[in-house]
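ugh ok fine here u go
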Amino acid sequence: MMPWALSYEKGYTIQVNQQGDPLFYHLDYDERSYDRNMEFQHFHDFYEICILLDHTAAHIIEGSLYEMQPYDLVLLRPSLLHKTQYPRGASPRRLMIRFDMPRNLPGLQEDYQALFSIFDEPVPIFRFPEERRSEILEPLNQIFTWSQQSSQVQAMAIHHQFVEFLCRIHHYAAENGYVREEAGSSISRRMYAVASYIHSHYQRELSLDEVARHFYISAPHLSRQFNKVTGFTFTAYVQMTRIRHAQQQLIHSHDKITDIAARCGFSSFSQFNRIFHKYHGMPPRLYRQNHRSLRDGLFH
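structure:
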């Protein structure tokens, strides 16, 4: 039996609708070299799946470092801080999938909730046995086949195959064999531990001095090394972590904005409003209105 192979070609892209639409897909197959590493961790409003196809790389997710092997599936839900690190040397091939879809179809809400639970795993990486891999990934080749055809139902067929792909991940999730291993230099691991601490304690007051004492590091040393390893100042990282939590609560809850601001660690509403505008270019109230109109009004 021949090993499973991806049908895609270098530089091949599939686009269904546009980013920001209630339903969109962007599949990008290419190579990524060390010099194209992202400088900073970032987050976005859509879902993302990264599939490494050869060599190795690393993903930094919510301040934790994860080593990746070929055919690992990295599943990222919206608003997760993340960044991919590609190694020096030969450029790894990878398939990057960015997407979103409405999930309030009448009669299927609970099914979609169960399906998308795969994006909520504590370790959001799946590593399947080789004998299972081809079965799980085959719908991606079917998407490639449909993208080559001229058909009035091409977008529907791509959507159908992608949902099948997610269903297969969900069905075989218990076979996930990924085990996280420590990687990187000791100082890098320590700074990622600081980042993880921020993600776990963002709701309360966090000062550089307090966190430095917790990790038995001087505040100036922590400030320098944290910026060097993560690409962010300590203060900016805390703010960004709080903002992305507030962002999700604005979309998915009906709580008062002042309550959300306090719950996410902001000392005042004016501070929250100013920092939110800095990251999103609009006040939190308008952000909530815009996203609610997209998500709540689709099938009404």
